[in-house]
Amino acid sequence: MLLSVRMAPPLTLIFLTLIHGVSSADWGVNYRHSHICALKHSAVIMRCTYTYPTGYEIRDVFWTKNPVKVEKLPDLSEDPEYSQRLQYLGDKQNNCTIRLSHVTQKDSQMYYFRFTTNVTDGKWVGDPGVTLTVTDLQVESPETVTEGDSVRLTCKSSCTLTDRATFIWYRNSQPLTEKRDRKNQLLLQSVRREDAGRYSCALQEHTYISPAVQLSVTYPPKSVSVSISPSGEIVEGDSVTLICSSYSNPPAEMSWFKGGTFVGSGRIYSISKISSNHSGEYKCKSSNKHGEKYSDTVTLNVMYPPKSASVSIIQFGQFLEGYSVTLICSSDSNPPALNFSWFKENQISSVGSGQSFIALQSERFYCEAHNQHGSQRSDAVTMDSQYPPKSASVSISPSGEIVEGDSVTLICSSYSNPPVEMSWFKGGTFVGSGRIYSISKISSNHSGEYKCKSSNEHGEKYSDAVTLNVMYPPKSASVSIIQSGQFLEGDSVTLICSSDSNPPALNFSWFKENQISSVGSGQSFIALQSERFYCEAHNQHGSQRSDAVTVTVHHGAAGNLVFVITVASG
Ligand SMILES: *[C@@H]1O[C@H](CO)[C@@H](O)[C@H](O)[C@H]1NC(C)=O
Ligand SMILES: *[C@@H]1O[C@H](CO)[C@@H](O)[C@H](O)[C@H]1NC(C)=O
Ligand SMILES: *[C@@H]1O[C@H](CO)[C@@H](O)[C@H](O)[C@H]1NC(C)=O
Ligand SMILES: *[C@@H]1O[C@H](CO)[C@@H](O)[C@H](O)[C@H]1NC(C)=O
Ligand SMILES: *[C@@H]1O[C@H](CO)[C@@H](O)[C@H](O)[C@H]1NC(C)=O
Ligand SMILES: *[C@@H]1O[C@H](CO)[C@@H](O)[C@H](O)[C@H]1NC(C)=O
């Protein structure tokens, strides 16, 4: 616009000379568009018609442009910058249409049509001409948009394009075929991650494409995952790297958790020499300003050879004449040791396998626990280890009935290490010590309940009680009078025979003193005469006779009973 004003004076001078001879009403150039806005690299058609009075013959028709400084107006088709691109589509009658292809910013000028006739002053320039503005396209877009929001991209030109063409959009050079529109805007509703990219715009049937503009979509971390390197089995001492991967924009900060405990930050969590206490469940957290997300947990299961192998005693037993001990080998390993070997100290070849081992000899044993990662041997233990008394019991010799005067031996048995001290109790009373308790001439007062106590420094144990029941013949037989009464014409006296014996005497005999044959049997005897009587008590072990007692039977009148017993003690 400014340009055309500045250019006006020289042209006016030309026209003034021109207008003198002719009427301007007959002369003219008519442009379809006074302003043309064209896209860079496109072809522009400037439609144009011209008129002149009859009686003239057209000589030259051509187009020229600003700046016009020379007397003779230059023909654009002779300008090397235009000659290849310019095509006169009109004629020498009235059509002055022109086509200019491959326009660039430099072509933004005012263009005029010029014609001359066979009459010297009969020439004309169509002023003002056609103002051509060549524009490029620029995508206007925010740099970032948050996922889920909507965004509007504008394809900007510096002037309103004269040809109302259809806009085409490209993302990463791929046309968005569904996004063709007469409007120069692209609306992305509820933006997704996939919408990020380099956007450019163009016009349909035009080769020019705008510079691309990056649209980035921000979003919270997604698909957070952990990978372990190396994959496969992890053995103590390995170097292990955990890598956290996630998609996010802007890039996420990552942190690491073992169980619920924070253990480090950064995309990579390295453990240079892994140990068994690193076993556990790990996860990473990926976070940016839009949110955070945890990965699934991954498990580190660190394998290691057996450590802290040890032997313990789990059971005592008896083996033929001796004792046995069951040993068990324990160790801490991953995977658990399933292979064990047993050795006598100072011997090379193993004496057994399996987690447990029954030792029959007093020896020093050790075990070796194996898994696929190695082995470890335990300290040696002496099988002859100490334990409290196990089971105590009493046996009686001879077995069977015990009769007063016999020799009787009680034997206490018990297992223990070190050997026990044994002591003997009758009822609750200590009666002796030692494994054997002998009674050389047993008497009735030895009858009773006996038990032995087995004890060492680790404990003590009582046997069950056994009963000694000592048999003996009747002793201290005696006669007593328990009743007097009447018998027919006279009085009578009832005598009873008592004795101490085991088993109790059930067989009694009664005698008159100085007579050999008995006068009665049974525990009681009725005396009818005044006499001296004695009794004899029997059991299967013998008999004893009592002292004689004097029985006086009164044969008084009228039932008055008087009797006198004289016991002659001896
Ligand atoms: C110009 O050409 C026209 C048509 O051929 C003719 O009539 C006229 O005389 C010419 N004018 C001059 C000055 O030669
Ligand atoms: C002028 O010529 C062009 C190209 O041949 C044509 O498209 C146009 O219709 C013509 N204009 C007139 C008014 O005859
Ligand atoms: C793991 O064990 C090593 C020695 O084996 C020790 O130095 C370290 O402190 C332990 N770490 C944990 C977390 O217990
Ligand atoms: C147990 O370990 C020993 C020593 O490494 C090996 O010779 C033996 O084959 C292993 N036995 C089993 C059943 O794995
Ligand atoms: C058992 O009887 C004998 C005699 O028979 C006696 O010497 C001893 O003291 C008695 N013992 C007890 C424990 O009564
Ligand atoms: C009682 O003892 C006497 C003398 O030993 C014997 O002759 C008699 O058979 C015994 N009687 C009974 C019933 O045991």
TrEMBL record:
Top-rank taxon: Eukaryota
SMART domains (alphabetical): IG, IGc2
Keyword Signal annotated: yes
Subunit structure: Predominantly monomer of isoform CD22-beta. Also found as heterodimer of isoform CD22-beta and a shorter isoform. Interacts with PTPN6/SHP-1, LYN, SYK, PIK3R1/PIK3R2 and PLCG1 upon phosphorylation. Interacts with GRB2, INPP5D and SHC1 upon phosphorylation. May form a complex with INPP5D/SHIP, GRB2 and SHC1.
Function, as annotated: Most highly expressed siglec (sialic acid-binding immunoglobulin-like lectin) on B-cells that plays a role in various aspects of B-cell biology including differentiation, antigen presentation, and trafficking to bone marrow. Binds to alpha 2,6-linked sialic acid residues of surface molecules such as CD22 itself, CD45 and IgM in a cis configuration. Can also bind to ligands on other cells as an adhesion molecule in a trans configuration.
InterPro entries the UniProt entry points to: Ig-like_dom (IPR007110), Ig-like_dom_sf (IPR036179), Ig-like_fold (IPR013783), Ig_CD22 (IPR056386), Ig_sub (IPR003599), Ig_sub2 (IPR003598), Immunoglobulin_dom (IPR013151)
Domain Ig-like: residue ranges: 128-218, 221-299, 306-382, 389-467, 474-552
Swiss-Prot/TrEMBL keywords: Immunoglobulin domain, Signal
Full protein name: B-cell receptor CD22
A Pfam family the protein falls into: Ig_CD22
Signal peptide interval: 1-24
